[in-house]
Design goal:
By secondary structure, the protein is of the alpha+beta class. It has four helices and four strands, in the order H-H-H-E-E-H-E-E. Bound molecules: zinc ion. The site of zinc ion (ZN) has 8 residues, from loops.
C-alpha cells in the first residue's frame, strides 16, 4: 500500500469517528428537544383543560410554558448546528472515499505495468540465455572456462575489444612493445590485456 493510500485511510478513520460522534450528539440534542416539547405540551393541556384555577398557579404555568418555548428554540439551534457539522463530515468522508478509490485504481494500474515489464524482461533473458548457449557450444571449453573466470573477477566483463590500441575493458592504451607482440601473435592465440587480464578481441580497428 502506498504512502498516499495510508494517509487517506488514516484521514478516513478520523472523519468516520467524527461522523459517529456527531450522530450521537445529534440523537441526544433531538432527545432534549422532544423532552422539552413533551413537557410544554403537558403544561398547555393542563392550561387548556382549565384544571388550574388559582391565579398564582396559572401565572407559574404560563411562565413555565414561555421558558420551555425559549429553551426549545435554543435546543433546536443546537440540533441544526450539529446537523450542519455532520453533513460537512459526511461530504468530507465521501470525498476521501472517492480519492481512496482513485488511489487504489492507480496502484492496480502500476502493479499491472510492473508485471508486464517484468514479463518482458524475463522473456528477453530467456532469448539471450538460449542465444548464449548456442554461441558457447561452438567455442573451446578451456576458453569458455577462462572467460567465465575473468568475467567473475572483472565485474561481469570477461572479454573486451582492442580498439585503437586501447583495451575496451580497462581503457588503458597499450605501449608499442605490447602492440608489437600482439601484432606478431598467431591468429588463434588468446590475447590478454597486461593490465586487467581480460581477453582482448582483435578487430580491424585494433590499430595493430
Ligand atoms: Zn585491460
Amino acid at each position: 500500500m502506498s504512502q498516499r493510500q495510508d494517509a487517506l485511510r488514516d484521514q478516513l478513520v478520523v472523519v468516520r469517528t467524527e461522523e459517529s460522534d456527531l450522530e450521537r450528539e445529534l440523537k441526544k440534542a433531538e432527545g432534549d428537544v422532544d423532552q422539552v416539547r413533551a413537557r410544554s405540551d403537558r403544561d398547555q393541556k393542563r392550561l387548556d383543560a382549565g384544571q388550574v384555577s388559582s391565579p398564582k398557579e396559572l401565572e407559574g404555568l404560563q411562565h413555565e410554558i414561555a421558558t420551555l418555548a425559549r429553551r426549545q428554540g435554543d435546543l433546536e439551534e443546537i440540533v441544526l448546528d450539529v446537523m450542519e457539522r455532520l453533513e460537512s463530515a459526511q461530504s468530507r468522508g465521501a470525498e476521501l472515499t472517492a480519492q481512496q478509490a482513485a488511489a487504489t485504481a492507480e496502484a492496480t494500474d502500476l502493479t499491472a505495468a510492473r508485471d508486464t515489464a517484468t514479463a518482458e524482461i524475463d522473456a528477453e533473458v530467456e532469448v539471450l540465455t538460449a542465444q548464449r548457449a548456442t554461441q558457447v557450444s561452438g567455442i573451446d571449453d578451456g576458453l569458455v572456462t577462462l572467460y567465465e573466470k575473468i568475467r567473475a573477477q572483472q565485474g561481469g566483463v570477461g572479454a573486451a575489444e582492442l580498439k585503437q590500441r586501447r583495451c575496451g575493458g580497462c581503457r588503458l592504451e597499450l605501449n608499442n612493445v605490447e602492440i608489437g607482440r600482439l601484432r606478431d601473435a598467431p591468429e588463434d592465440e588468446v590475447l590478454r590485456c597486461e593490465e586487467c587480464r581480460r581477453i582482448l578481441v582483435r578487430t580491424a580497428e585494433s590499430g595493430l
